[in-house]
Amino acid sequence: QVQLVESGGGLVQPGGSLRLSCAASGRIVSGYTMGWYRQAPGKQREVVARITSYDIIKVGDSVKGRFTISRDNAKNTVYLQMNSLKVDDTAVYYCNLGGDLYVTGEFWGPGTRVTVSS
Question: Which residue in 53, 98, 103, 109 has the most C-beta neighbors within 10 A?
């Protein structure tokens, strides 16, 4: 089985920054894709960014130019650097593992809450 644990969420003012981390453990097959998704209250879960094992990246239109996804394969960890945060970025952010650049994987973390508010 695969376990994902997110960290780094919290409360931040508009225009601020946060860095999310997601550490994967368990039966991880090499060459996996990881990604970040978010779900705001009353809305469907949406993709934020995904990154393949070759560092090919896909970023959602709503966060382009503000969010950056990266990974450290030695640590089985994926990061999401979020800059210029907006109130609309408020959501629970989930880590995902598996699939490919355009297909969501089957493994999910429990989520970390990000609140952008003044």
Answer: 109
Per-residue pLDDT in tens (0 to 9) along the chain, 118 residues: 899 999 999 999 999 999 999 999 988 777 899 999 999 999 999 999 999 999 999 999 999 999 999 999 889 999 999 999 999 999 999 999 998 888 889 999 999 999 999 9
Q: Yes or no: say if 85 and 116 are a contact pair by the CB < 8 Å rule.
A: yes
Amino acid identity at 16? G
How far apart, in whole angstroms, are the C-alpha atoms of residue 36 and residue 97?
9
Q: Which helix (H) or strand (E) holds 91?
A: strand 91-100
- Partnered with residue 107 across adjacent β-strands are 97
- Phi, psi values for residue 110, rounded to 5°: -75, -15
Produce one character per residue of 80-106: b if its CB has 16 or more CB atoms within 10 Å, e if not.
Answer: bebeebeeebbbbbbbbbbbeeeebbe
The rounded distance, in Å, linking the Cα atoms of 65 and 40 is 20
